[in-house]
Design a protein that fits this description.
The structure holds 2 protein chains of 2 kinds. Chain A has 2 helices and 5 strands, in the order E-E-H-E-E-H-E. By secondary structure, chain A is mostly beta strands. In chain A, the strands form 2 sheets. A two-stranded antiparallel ribbon of chain A has the order 2-5. In chain A, strands 3-4 form a two-stranded antiparallel sheet. Chain A is elongated and about 80 Å long. The model of chain A has no long low-confidence stretch (mean pLDDT about 90). Chain B folds into 2 domains: about 240 residues, Thiamin diphosphate (ThDP)-binding fold, Pyr/PP domains (Rossmann fold, 3-Layer(aba) Sandwich), CATH 3.40.50; about 140 residues, Rossmann fold. Chain B contains 13 helices and 16 strands. In chain B, helix 1 crosses helix 2, helix 8 crosses helix 9 and helix 10 crosses helix 13. Chain B is globular, with a radius of gyration of 21 Å. Chain B starts with a strand and ends with a strand. The mean pLDDT of chain B is about 95. The chains are: A mainly beta, B alpha/beta.
Amino acid sequence: MAKELPGYGTIDVPKDRVVPFGAVTPAPVCQQDLFQTSNWRIVRPVKDDEKCTRCLICYLSCPDACWVYKEEEDVMEWVNNFCKGCQICIQECPSGALTAVPELDFPDGVARLDKPF
Amino acid sequence: MAKAKMLTGCRAAAEGAKAAEVEVICSYPIRPYTAIMMELAKMVANGELNAEFVHGEGEHAQLSVVLGACAAGARAYTGSSGVGVTYAMELYSPMAGGRYPVQMTIADRTLDPPGDFGSEHTDAMCTRDNGWLLGWACSPQEVYDNTLIAYRVGEDHRVMLPQMVCQDGYFISHIPDKVTLGEMSQVKEFLPPYRPIGPLSLTHPVSHGPQIRPDQGAPMDAMRAQTFLAVPKVIEEATADFNRIFGRNYDPFVEQYKLADAEIAFFIMGAHSNTCRTAVDRLRKQGVKAGMARLRWVRPWPTHQLATALGHVKAIGVVETSTSYGGAMRGGNLIHELRASLYDLDERPLVTSFMGGLGGETIWPADFDNMAKVLTQAVKEKKVRNYVQWLGM
């Protein structure tokens, strides 16, 4: 052909942005840090330990397993990196121990991050 | 070489799947592709094929079943027609994104309304932007061949993508034609066993299909696009190997029929190309320098190959067998991409399109004569009057 036609170019995905092939990752892991999913959270549940009765309803109702019972300290622990702020736990908590607090109220609030994590 | 048998396209597809020794099949009935599953069910029942045959409760379930099977490391096979293809739409992108090289066989059927069962390419064409390999056969023989070629390309570790192997409903799926089936030794030489990457495993547990963050979406898309840059070479290699081992003569991307000295050409894919070849011969006898380019793969689209094959032609008539209502040319899908492929040539051919073979209608030789008249007129006038003509309307 007389004229050279444009090519398709090249695609170079920066090394630090490469995603595992087909998004297949090792499992089981307690937390999959390759794919953290809380960066669109607008509010987070904040817990009042005085009111919390460790009834575990938050643990049962969370769709993303973001409440963990720490047996030794006898407290509920919240999982920052995967809570999407859906507030189901806040709705379900029978003792009113959970409150929705805007992410902007926290220095490390995900709404403030330049990069997702 | 084995003797040719008279087989329908459906039987040929089933024979292809059997030759590929598929391990999991998921079916759900919808004509005309149903006959493929009926043939496979018989093969499994008779012990000719050792495969898990699963009855899905719908096309969405079919695709989900083969996704799981493929994730577990099986060579998986499913299929559908018409609205069945569109009912499974949600699964197409995850299948490609998760890099599951399953094969879906399609005997095209027009989409509703209202329940027409004739052939039309719109069903599978709807899925073309989801990252699957997508191509059309024009004979039962090519259905069998493409079944093997598509598995070989899709399962290549440079590719790892699902494939849609399409044939026109009825025109190919239900009309028997001569098919030479390969010997098992040929198939074994051509198609290595499926080697999954990171399959589900009890000893090496992995997680498939996780949620990713928005900032991980772009790299994933880019990596899929990157793969599509590599696919053409794999298709070329696979086609060359197939031609050598099975004694065929396929061009990897575009069948060129009497194109070298053609002044007008039909751009077409699928079953109606058989009539088109006859029409080209007839036109040639009448002194019209006609030719035909038949597309074998829609994804990946062979941009440069088409520019090379068709660049010298004066006027091209795209025979559309799918609809793109309200699209740039107000007709079908192929004309957009063909025009785009030719845009950078110094001297571009004139390109118009013809809507035909819709709803299961036949495109008759006389239709090609009429199309040739439009193209000849365009050459004379050095312009196309319209982007699109509806045959018989």
